[in-house]
Specification:
The complex is a heterodimer.
Chain A lengths: L26 H44 L6 H4 L4 H11 L7 H13 L15 H12 L1 H4 L2 E2 L28 E2 L2 H8 L5 H6 L11 H13 L6 H20 L7 H6 L3 H8 L10 H21 L6 H18 L10
Antiparallel strand pairs in A: 1-2
Helix pairs in contact in A: 1-3, 1-4, 1-9, 3-4, 3-5, 4-5, 5-14, 9-12, 10-13, 13-14
Chain B lengths: L28 E3 L5 E5 L9 E2 L6 E2 L4 E4 L8 E2 L4 E10 L5 E9 L23 H11 L11 H5 L9 E6 L8 H8 L1 H15 L3 E7 L3 H10 L6 E6 L8 H9 L14 E5 H13 L5 E7 L7 E6 L4 H7 L7 E6 L6 E2 L13 E6 H4 L12 H5 L6 H9 L3 H8 L9 H5 L6 H19 L1
Parallel strand pairs in B: 1-14, 9-10, 9-12, 10-11, 13-17
Antiparallel strand pairs in B: 2-8, 3-5, 4-7, 5-6, 7-8, 13-14, 15-16, 15-17
Helix pairs in contact in B: 3-5, 4-5, 4-7, 11-12, 11-14, 12-14
The chains are: A mainly alpha, B alpha/beta.
Chain lengths: ~350, ~450
């Protein structure tokens, strides 16, 4: 017999208040989009840096996941990793690490990203700084030599050529890496030596495992933009500002300062602009705020690269603008409909 | 004629929920048969409840006055049926509470023919001055038919220093699933235009604009077809976007004017009325028919046979649903009104009201909610909010019960609770529910302080 809701005395109807309709996107699905967008860059990391890259990513992701799990309430553990954001943070910090980094440092980096970058603030959505970058800043400050010893890019033929320093035991002095090389930014800054744009574009240069290939980062970034997963204003503002600022400097002294294209394609600028500066949690809510944020990142990164002590400035540019985000939000509240600004 | 390739006039922000109108948009309006019992809540409009003028045991005719307005912001009630008053007392309302109502048992032998003599309407509209017109509208029991049920005559009472230049007729019907206004415009375009002319002349407005969302091309072409050159009426195709039918959005879309916060449309010379209200006016002044029935869309995945129905006001929802083949087994929730702003039905024996535009039934698929995730500040709610509020921040403050800060810094009282933010939220945060709680608390607080 049919169970007719009309015939029941008490139909047990739900009383959820409107709106009943929801758009399809959920937060875990939004995270999945970022995972998909990072696939090309991850593939490029494995292509150029082989087994070392694979092991670094595995350890940084496990460091992040384990920390998230340990610090989640027992009752909530069932859901702890369901939004996949912890794993994503682990992948993002992994992609910013040099290929020869001892694996225990990569693990520690993932763990610090989640522990100090996210959990301590109150979990997903509450942190002020981008967790992956905070973890990277921690590593850079703690292990400056290991974090600035770069391995040259290889190819699939050398997939199994592991950097010996990867396997350094925890808290032991890292062994000197025989395969070390300078990054394009380092060459530029300390030796005024350029790198072919084609190499920067394809990615067979020294550098952090996930940052070298402009092509594959652009693929992922364009995917995110097309899917409207990230605010287009942030990367646009970063690219325009960095390009204009470095072009002005390039005009003043073309030998000392790099061209705008070099600025855009080298170092972590693309990885940072598409995947870290656009982290919604740590970037402004308001459209105007996103422009200010992006302009700030673009300006700071060139300023640090050209005039600071470090060859690369993306890390600190984003972290500094993260710190300014609550203030930017406060002063860029949209004008309410029917009210004066 | 309008251009099918342009989006239509619009406002900024808003969301695009799937409109789901295909279920009922081509179904002609049918009349539901009379049932045995009717319940007329005295307070089914905004304002002071009406005052009964009948007693238990009285025999009433269809269309006869059964409760008179009890003050200015109050309106009349008429019997939807010929029969006998069986009770004046507390009856179940749609939200599950009990409200004062008149219960009428229909006379099974009556023809239920409506006769003009049972109403006091003065059908000679040309002879009425504005004050007589306003009191006639109050006696007709006509309220805003879009859902708010605000007594219409109050809207027409314009202070002397103000002048209405434009009459804006709301045929946007931006709520998904609902097609009652659409069918009304398709099947009775003359009545729509006639009502526009009556109201325009009474208010002394220069022009009329009828705004219709572009997903109702048949409504637009039917109105165009009956429009004659001597009528100063524009039919304005609007972009399909929610909440296009919200009063302030509609004014922005059609006149490109931003109604200042805290002001009424009449303050900028505009009167806004729903098409349903306009047709009710035409029927009252042409045929003497007070507001005793209305068009209700029955739709949603839980309804067996979706339909557009003329339903006598006061008919129990259960009877209307039975006429439409009943509910599917998987039905989990029934909504009165649209899915974005309607209210859940707690008891199916509660009656259809003057403001009931639809009865929608939803199944597990639409009512099951994923877990609520933390706000990741994705700003989709900011892009959705047509009032440019900051729903993300408001939800966060609302959760912390910082209601005063919500008003002082973020103007929470400007929210009209359209639900666009909550529709857009990927973390499934009940944003508009937090806002409603805050607004209720703030209202109580200011009432206490006064």
């Amino acid at each position: 017999m049919k169970n007719d809701p009309l015939k029941k005395r008490d139909p047990n109807l739900l009383l959820q208040s409107a709106p009943l309709l929801r758009q399809e996107l959920t937060t875990p699905a939004a995270m999945k989009e970022v995972w998909i967008a990072l696939l090309p860059a991850t593939a490029a990391a494995l292509w150029f840096f082989g087994l070392s890259a694979l092991l670094i990513l595995i350890t940084s992701i496990s460091g992040a996941l384990l920390t998230e799990w340990v610090f989640t309430d027992k009752q909530k553990r069932r859901f702890a990793l369901s939004d996949t954001s912890a794993g994503l943070t682990g992948l993002l910090i992994g992609l910013t690490l040099p290929p020869g980094l001892p694996l225990w440092m990569a693990f520690l980096g993932g763990s610090v990203s989640i522990g100090l970058g996210k959990v301590i603030w109150g979990g997903l959505g509450t942190n002020i700084f981008n967790p992956a970058l905070l973890g990277r800043a921690f590593l850079l400050g703690t292990f400056p030599i290991a974090m600035t010893t770069w391995g040259a890019a290889g190819g699939p033929g050398e997939f199994f050529q592991l950097h010996s320093s990867n396997l350094a035991l925890p808290f032991m002095q890292a062994q000197v890496d025989s395969m070390s090389a300078a990054t394009p930014l380092g060459l530029m800054k300390f030796e005024q030596q350029g790198t072919a744009l084609w190499s920067l574009f394809m990615g067979n240069t020294a550098g952090s495992i996930g940052e070298t290939s402009a092509l594959f980062l652009l693929l992922g970034g364009v995917y995110l933009l097309l899917r409207r997963s990230i605010d287009w204003r942030i990367p646009t503002a970063i690219f325009l500002t960095a390009a204009v600022f470095s072009f002005i400097m390039f005009l003043t002294d073309g030998d000392k300062y790099p061209s705008p294209l070099f600025t855009l394609f080298s170092g972590g600028l693309l990885l940072g602009a598409f995947f870290m500066a656009t982290d919604p949690v740590t970037s402004p809510l308001t459209p105007k705020g996103c422009w200010i944020f992006g302009i700030g990142v673009g300006f700071l990164v060139v300023l640090i690269r050209l005039f600071g002590g470090l060859p690369e400035g993306m890390l600190y540019a984003i972290l500094l603008m993260n710190a300014a985000t609550p203030l930017i939000d406060r002063y860029t509240q949209p004008r309410i409909f029917g009210r004066q600004a | 004629m309008f251009n099918f390739f342009s989006l239509g006039q619009s406002f900024s922000h808003g969301v695009h929920p799937p409109h789901h109108k295909e279920q009922t948009e081509d179904l002609p309006i049918q009349r539901v048969p009379f049932v045995s019992r009717y319940v007329m809540p005295l307070g089914q409009h905004i304002g002071i409840p009406a005052q009964p003028v009948v007693k238990v045991g009285d025999v009433v005719q269809r269309g006869q006055l059964i409760a008179k307005p009890n003050g200015f912001i109050s309106t009349a009630l008429h019997s939807p049926v010929t029969g006998k008053i069986t009770d004046i007392g507390m009856h179940r309302y749609v939200d599950g509470s009990f409200k004062a109502a008149i219960e009428i048992a229909a006379d099974p032998y009556a023809t239920q023919q409506f006769s003009v003599s049972s109403t006091q309407s003065n059908s000679n509209i040309q002879d009425l001055n504005l004050d007589e017109f306003i009191s006639a509208v109050q006696q007709s029991g006509i309220v805003g038919m879009g859902g708010a049920a605000f007594p219409s005559h109050v809207k027409y009472s314009i202070p002397e220093e103000q002048k209405i230049n434009d009459l804006l007729v709301n045929g946007a019907e931006c709520e998904p699933y609902l097609t009652n206004d659409h069918r009304l415009m398709v099947e009775r375009p003359e009545a729509v235009l006639r009502g526009c002319e009556i109201l325009r002349q009474q208010l002394g407005a220069k022009r009329v604009a009828i705004g219709v969302e572009k997903n109702k091309p048949e409504s637009i072409s039917k109105l165009q077809q009956y429009l004659t050159a001597d009528m100063p009426i524009d039919i304005v195709p609007l972009e399909v976007k929610y909440p296009q039918g919200a009063e302030k959005m509609l004014i922005k879309s059609i006149y490109n004017k931003e109604l200042p916060a805290g002001k009424l449309p009449r303050d900028i010379g505009i009167a806004v009325n729903n098409v349903g209200t306009i047709v009710a006016l035409a029927d009252y002044f042409d045929q003497g028919m007070p507001l005793i029935e209305r068009i209700v869309t029955l739709a949603g995945p839980g309804v067996e046979e979706p339909a557009n129905l003329i339903v006598p006001i006061g008919t129990p929802i259960r009877d209307v649903l039975e006429f439409a083949g009943g509910l599917k087994e998987q039905t989990r929730e029934v909504i009165m009104g649209g899915p974005m702003m309607g209210s859940p039905v707690a008891d199916l024996d509660a009656p259809i009201l003057k403001g009931t535009s639809g009865i929608l039934a939803f199944t597990d698929a639409e009512t099951a909610r994923p877990r609520e995730y933390p706000c990741i500040r994705c700003a989709r709610c900011l892009e959705a909010c047509p009032y440019f509020l900051n729903p993300s921040r408001l939800a966060l403050l609302g959760k912390a019960r910082l209601f005063e800060e919500m008003q002082e810094k973020y103007n929470v009282m400007d929210c009209v609770e359209c639900g666009a933010c909550t529709f857009a939220c990927p973390s499934n945060i009940p944003i508009v529910q937090h806002i409603r709680t805050a607004k209720d608390n703030l209202r109580n607080l200011s009432a206490k302080n006064n």
